[in-house]
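In practice, a research group might receive sequence data for several interacting partners and want a quick structural hypothesis before committing to experiments. The following worked case mirrors that situation: the sequences arrive first, and a predicted assembly follows.
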Amino acid sequence: MNIGLDMMGGDFAPLEAVKGVARYLSEQEQPATLFLIGDQQAIEKLIAGHKVDRNHIRIIASEEVIGMHEHPTKALKEKKRSSIAIGFHLLASGKMDAFISAGNTGAMLVGSLFSIKALEGVLRPTISTIIPKENGGTGLLLDVGLNADCKPEHLNQFAVMGSVFSHLILGIENPKVGLMNVGEEEGKGNILAQAAYPLLKENKSINFIGNVEGRDILKDKADVMVCEGFTGNIILKLAESLYEITKDKKIHHEFLERFNFENYGGTPVLGVTKPVVIGHGISKAIAFKNMILVAQKMLDKKVVEQLKNELE
Amino acid sequence: MNIGLDMMGGDFAPLEAVKGVARYLSEQEQPATLFLIGDQQAIEKLIAGHKVDRNHIRIIASEEVIGMHEHPTKALKEKKRSSIAIGFHLLASGKMDAFISAGNTGAMLVGSLFSIKALEGVLRPTISTIIPKENGGTGLLLDVGLNADCKPEHLNQFAVMGSVFSHLILGIENPKVGLMNVGEEEGKGNILAQAAYPLLKENKSINFIGNVEGRDILKDKADVMVCEGFTGNIILKLAESLYEITKDKKIHHEFLERFNFENYGGTPVLGVTKPVVIGHGISKAIAFKNMILVAQKMLDKKVVEQLKNELE
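A structural hypothesis for the assembly, expressed as tokens:
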């Protein structure tokens, strides 16, 4: 199993990426082989200082970096020697089995869609976020920003993809699927939600429980919550800011601590032909380690194959 | 100034409504005259026990109640002797200047739209919610559920109505208006947000500062945040549930305490010809008192007249 890691992505790269790699390798009995893509000299120097087991890594030199604010398509096209471009090249050619970056999110999405491509039958790949439930459980919200405008059939596929991820990766049996909405009853909502409801209701591959409202997001009502990426992105960023604010204000509680995105290790792109995990720009060692673990688990549990079965 | 109060609306009516009235009257030097609409006998009994100054109230008997889960249009039509129907009748006929209820939200909205009607030039009346800012400030988010599907010109009017409310009622000079979106730059977002941006940018009656993201909602970026009612309702209910959850978990902090909706006294319906304030079903005395204060302030500050000037 070869997992590629963009060592140049994120605000604290490559140092925190190396520290994440070191943690991952020291904690795993049978680690994957990690392809570390980035500035060879810088990486060599850092791994020497961080007790990284060289048996499990391969350094792939890249000469360029796609900045956090560069235009994704343009940058990927022009910077062929960037860590992200090389990563997708190795992924598409089969030399790597999964790819991780905390760099330019747009470039990671463009790479996922145009380099390794969507699974046959998948209308729109999607990104999701973990939602900490007040009872200690773990929910999944999707889409969180890849698809700002959606059609009902997109939400229906998000429900299937979310269910597969929730089951295989989060370990939830027969996950309950809810449609994000503004009321409980069927028929409530905007035009999109009204049209999506019957599709979800008739979909036999999911366990649809009906609408979920804003007040249900943090409660144990649905394990998988589907919406278009506009609403989902706003919920995600609001939740992230809540963690920052409570930390700044020194409001401590284990429930609030679970809003720390570092615990979850990035956002997998679901519905593409290989596991791709996108991290937050401010990822540190723990986030990098957890991203590697998510990619490894997606490979172990054959998430892509399962999505293929469900959606092709 | 005559302010009508539905004494039968909400889970704790009429007791908590009476307690709210008592508080309001005891705290105000020059209180408005309150029209208390409801079960006469029950109200008489309660006001006798709660030291309500009878000089400032008038009891209006109603024989019916619209339940929380009744169909709004049907109930308003069939229950002409209900407290909400009588309230709108008195409001429309000019006997009352404002009307407040913590009862059936749908019936209050239907009454606002069809009994007292929208101001000329207002495409869509709207409801808003107060957003506690982390720095202690007070933001306004709208629409929060009256208009699940919107056109760009609706958001543009919400921006104007929100600015007037923010200025006159929340006391914010030249309030900064932000467009809820999934990215910072112009051109980001779903089709609606992309199309609304240039309208807001060119709108000379507002102080538009650009897009605001989920992470900015609780921060001091925009005073007035506009979106369609689908996203807004989900944000509102998520914020409300957060207050409940932190209370249940005994996570105490003054910032979290500010999420208590009781502090704000309900949601005014903006863009209709008279002040209407809708309360939460679980409103207690403080919420009722604050709803009366909001209605009074809307009359004092001539919010409706100002909206008329801006939008006609």
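Before designing any experiment, note the following. The first strand of chain B starts at residue 2 and ends at 6. Chain B has two domains: 1-119+271-301, 123-261.
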